[in-house]
Amino acid sequence: MPTLPKRLLKPWHRLWIITGIIYLLVLAGIFQVLMPNQESIERKMVFSVTEEVRRYDGMAFAGESPRKIFEVARSKGYSNWIEQVRSNYRIGSEGDTGFNKIERNYREAVSNLPIKRTVGILICLVAWLMPMAVFYIFGFVVDWIKSGVRVIQK
Question: Which of 21, 44, 88, 91 has the most CB within a 10 Å radius?
Fold first, then answer.
């Protein structure tokens, strides 16, 4: 019956595994922070609407917190909120171009979100695999050199 080796993993294998896990967690955190999500797209759209309204009334939303504006827009529904804001500040058809551009940008950002997330995940995967493969090869070569030196010294 064959005997099992005392150590299944060499020390540099353990280092490689721990480093890979830590690096993967760092990449996942960076991905989470940098990748847009539905809420960030909605916040950007609400901010764009408030900026467009300020073009017609410079004091619009003065003194209101951005968080409160966003919560009101979300609770009323974005379309209803935009209509209400346009009627409150008497923005007629002259504002159609700006508001249509905001709506187009919002719809485009929402429709591109799955593609962006998929591409981001693929980039993170490659950004993890490439350095980890190089690190593994480096560890393997150093171990191979060390084992050759041990054989020569015996």
Answer: 91
